[in-house]
Structures are given as C-alpha cells and as structure tokens.
Amino acid sequence: MTPSQGLNYKRREKMRLFIAINFNEEIKDVLMDLADDLREQGASGNFVPYDNLHLTLVFLGEVRDDELIIIKDALDYVPFPDINIEINECGNFRDLFWVGTKENKVLNEYVKKLRDYLRQEGINFDKKKFKPHITLIRRANFPEGVVIKTPRASMKCDKASLMQTRFVKNKPVYSEIY
Predict the structure, then answer these.
(1) Is residue 13 one of the residues assigned to a domain?
(2) Residue 122 placed within a domain
(3) What are phi and psi of 19, to 5 degrees?
(4) Is residue 1 a part of any domain in this protein?
(5) Which of the four pLDDT bands, split at 50, 70 and 90, describes residue 12?
(6) What is the pLDDT of residues 154-172, one digit of tens each?
(7) Handedness of CA 160, 30, 152, 126 (dihedral sign)
(8) Rounded Cα–Cα distance for residues 63 and 84 (Å)
(9) Which residues, at least 6 apart from 7, have a Cβ–Cβ distance to it below 8 Å?
(10) What pLDDT shows up at residue 2?
C-alpha cells in the first residue's frame, strides 16, 4: 500500500507567507495617485495593485502547515506597539521602485522582536536587513525627465497580519489569514 492509499495519511502542504502591516484606504489612495502620475509620465513596469499594497515586516516564504501555529504564536506573543507610519521618501532597489517610511525605532524594535521569536522557534525567514518600504512598481522603467513627487501621508497602525500569497492567472493575490 502506498502512502497516498493508506489511512491517516496527511500530505503536508506549503503556503507562501509573510507578516505585514496592511494600509487603510487613505494611504492606498495616496500611493495609487503617485502610481497614476508616474504612468501618465510614461513610467512602465508591473504596478502593484491597490489591494496588494502593504509593508512587509517578515518574509517567511514557503511554510509548512505544521509551522503555522508557531508563526501565529509569534504574532500573539510579541505585543504590537503603538506605531505611526509616515511615508516620506521614494527609492529603488535595482528595478524595484518603492515608497519609504520615516525612520521609526518602535517599528524596528517590533520587527527585531518578531524575528528573534521566530528564529528561537526554528522558523526560517528572509534575513535581509529590514528596510521599511512599500513596493509600488516591479521591473520599473522610467523615461528621462520623469518627476517623482514624493507622497506624504501617515497612519496609526494597530496590528500586524499574517498574509498568504496565492497566484491567480500568474498574478499574486494577498489575503490575510491571521
């Protein structure tokens, strides 16, 4: 008898997950206004859809379903502090165009505590240095003369969310699962 024919066999599924701060409509509208302005000036690339705008705190990647409880415990165990996010800069990592936030020691400390908890529990995650940013365009291409008007907006944050990425018609769709 093969495992798939046997009783009590459970296939371990993997989910693509990350921990993020989701934005309110005001912040998303400001970011979309910038995206629209850049499009009108001839910028091209893969613009992030309105519903996918977020600030990644910890990218977990492919996670087994049996690791999920530990990740949820991290969100429960590490208290979410009062955080005010202020958008105040734009930049790029190679061809990824992003909107950044004002330096925030409280946010940085929260991310450090989350990562420490996950590390101690043996959960793998992307270890890149945390640089708070909102991806606006992937594979960005700007014609000469584009003027980028850095948006200004702020938001009081009340939680971090565990997010899942699914691909629908080869496009990422993010949904909050915890």
Answers:
(1) no
(2) yes
(3) -105, 130
(4) no
(5) low
(6) 999 999 999 999 999 999 9
(7) positive
(8) 30
(9) none
(10) 39
CA distance 20 to 176: 9
Nearest to 72 by CA among 60, 82, 84: 60
Q: Is residue 148 part of a domain?
A: yes
User: Residue 157 sits in which domain range?
Assistant: 24-176
Instruction: Answer yes or no: pTM beyond 0.85.
Output: yes
Start-to-end Cα distance in the chain: 38
pLDDT in tens, 24-53: 999 999 999 999 999 999 999 999 999 999
* Residue-wise pLDDT tens digits, 70-115: 999 999 999 999 999 999 999 999 999 999 999 999 999 999 999 9
- Separation of alpha carbons 82 and 86, rounded Å: 13
The pLDDT score that the predictor gives to residue 65 is 87
- DSSP code string of the chain: --TTTSTT-----EEEEEEEEEPPHHHHHHHHHHHHHHHHTT-EEEEPPGGG-EEEEEEEEEEEGGGHHHHHHHHHHSPPPPEEEEEEEEEEETTEEEEEE---HHHHHHHHHHHHHHHHTT-----SPP--EEEEEEEEE--TT-------EEEEE---EEEEEEEETTEEEEEE--
